[in-house]
Design brief:
This protein is α/β, with parallel strands linked by helices. 49% of the residues lie in helices and 13% in strands. The chain has a ten-stranded mixed β-sheet. Helix 6 links the parallel strand 1 and strand 2. This is Radical SAM protein.
């Protein structure tokens, strides 16, 4: 057993060294070599299949080729190395082996990703936010998050999404990001707190992928987040782009903005600002004062799906339609990940607020 583990470590060490060399020197000219190395890192059939599909699209779809070339060319080299190390080496290579052991030992399937909401406090009151009616007094402490993230890593989870309300309003999270540098954190943020100093921290740490909320142009964004929100988000994007940070945009799609957030003009603006990923979530009425008139009509849902597929095939920009893309991940992903809320509730889905356990209480 020790001999096999030693062989795995030596193979991984050699592959990692080669990947770093490729990233450092002309990565855009060695993408096929990167795919080959990535397949070596994949420890399960699903991961290998995903890599093969991406390589296929890369060779057949010009927009995918342009996307990967721009990412490898314009992303900060140290940031790119850390992203590759955490996502492919830790989450896919080491993480898969750990999660497999837990499945065999405890007959428990450990998810690939964990969602956490350290706090519900926010510097904005965003119309349509799913956390709008939550108790703002409830929040997790540094010790709580430290325990959760440490246990997640022990289980083989190396990819964590940090939600809020606003994750960059929780100062102790910087200590968490630094302590768990081998974990990749994706932060969903309104973007207004991304200053030069914050952008400097992000690029220095290298293990944070910011996803900035943006529901359209200035008129649409300010109508939800308040006057000046759009310009603050634009400035935050500039700070991230200037430092070579890989980041994306998260948009809530409603009846009033669906055409704007899927327009060529909007997508081109985001690409020029340095965004690489767009994640679309359909508006869902939440809270006692929610507006059901903002929900997409059936025809708009169909058009949203069609439009995002067009963007994927024509723009160097990865677009994800959270609801309409369900067939690609086998339908509803409830139970395929954990979501830990600010009051300690453990939920199987961020959109279905039903908890059977609380991290602050003994398990039932």
């Amino acid at each position: 057993m020790k001999i096999i583990e030693s062989m795995h470590k030596n193979i991984k060490k050699a592959v990692v060294a080669t990947i770093y060399e490729v990233i450092e020197h002309n990565p855009e000219k060695n993408i096929n070599r990167i795919f080959s190395l990535a397949r070596m890192l994949a420890k399960d059939d699903d991961s290998k299949k995903s890599i093969e599909e991406i390589e296929k699209y890369y060779n057949e779809v010009p927009s995918i080729k342009q996307f990967l070339q721009e990412v490898l060319t314009n992303t900060n080299k140290a940031f790119m190395k850390k992203l590759f190390e955490n996502f492919f080496i830790n989450a896919i290579w080491d993480g898969t082996l750990k999660r497999k052991k837990w499945l065999e030992k405890e007959d428990t399937k450990i998810p690939f990703v964990l969602l956490i909401s350290p706090s519900i406090k926010c510097n904005l009151r965003y119309i349509g936010c799913y956390e709008v009616d939550y108790d703002k007094s409830k929040e997790l402490s540094y010790e709580d998050i430290d325990k959760v993230v440490g246990q997640a890593r022990d289980l083989g989870i190396y990819f964590i999404m940090v939600l809020g309300a606003e994750p960059f309003s929780v100062n102790y999270m910087w200590e968490i990001y630094e302590k768990y540098s081998d974990i990749e954190f994706m932060t969903f943020t309104n973007g207004t707190l991304i200053t030069k100093e914050v952008a400097d921290k992000i690029v220095k740490l290298g293990n944070i992928i910011p996803m900035l909320y943006l529901d359209g142009f200035e008129k649409e964004t300010d109508s939800k987040g308040g006057s000046g929100t759009f310009l603050k988000v634009m400035k935050g994007m500039d700070f991230l782009k200037d430092r070579g940070v890989f980041f994306g945009v998260s948009s809530v799609v409603s009846r009033s903005n669906v055409e704007k957030v899927t327009s060529d003009e909007f997508i081109e603006m985001l690409i020029n600002k340095g965004a690489r990923v767009g994640w679309y979530f359909m508006y869902m009425p939440v809270g006692s004062k929610s507006n059901i008139e903002l929900m997409l009509t059936p025809s708009q849902r169909i058009e949203l799906s069609r439009r995002i597929k067009t963007i994927r095939m024509s723009k160097p920009y990865v677009s994800i339609d959270f609801f309409n893309d369900a067939p690609y991940v086998g339908g509803c992903i409830d139970g395929e990940y954990y979501c830990i809320k600010s009051k300690g509730d453990v939920e199987s889905c961020i959109f279905a607020h039903i908890a059977v356990d609380n991290g602050e209480l003994p398990p039932r």
